Amino acid sequence: MKPADRKIPGITIDVADLVGVRRQVSGLSPGLIRRRASFRSGARDTRVRGRGMEYEESRAYVPGDDMRTMDWQVMARTGEPHSKVFAEEKERRFLLAVDLSSSMFFGSDTAFKSYAAAHTAAHVGWLASYAGDRLGGLIVAPDSHYEIRPGKSRSSLIRLFHFLSEGGQLSLPLDPGPSRLNHLLRELNRVVKPGSIIALISDFLGIDSQSAEILSAVVKHNDVSLYWIYDALEVDPWAAGSYPVWHRSQLQSVEVNGDHNGWLHELQSTHREAVEDLCAQFNLPLLSVSCNTELTGQIIGQLQQS
Could you give the CA distance from residue 299 to residue 306 in angstroms, rounded to a whole number? Predict the structure, then answer.
């Protein structure tokens, strides 16, 4: 059963709202998103990233040049070693990979994580659009999957907004199904082209060793940034009281006592460390977005700091 067709603030993912995000980022430098994407590789135009680079010219070999850039044809013709020089394409493929697993349909205050994820994608997507990137995306929801191939026009971004709205519809009763994070990563690895910029948006509650294994293939030839969507109850101490929680497909009551909640702190710390360790393992930038506070200030503030 789906709720009545009415807009619920902080829960309903409305296409018009996502389109409206462009007004909030229109005065910002498009370079914000490119600068964040270049976190791993330092200065731009310094690495060969497959199809993300285009051939510019060949020049005499200089000791220290990457052997993968050797121009064997020119070397055969001239008898002297030459290296290919590549310039990064002005238009890069930019993929928004959004996880709308069941765990994302939660929020203790202000908004659901699914809502925050969609609006994070809108902020990042509009900035990438202003930078002239070819936008595409992948979205996984509890019982659906959406794929948008990168395109030059902003219609690709609008299509993604429609899919976010569709995949983010709240169905009742909410089925606390398994995380689809690894499914998203596998699909990402399947469709991504070398040289792409990827914004991976999730609460990462489904993170495990397999996640790292799949991600290792994705980051090899692409610039990946992680956007961790979280709720305050997942990172802060809980007030004493009784809380209804899903456990092993059953709704149970958990009593929290201020003097005996070490187990909760351990769960929170373990998850935070898993996300941070994943970023550290592959040297990926991490942007943390709370679903409990205003989104634009958080997202833009952290992009400007990177």
Answer: 11
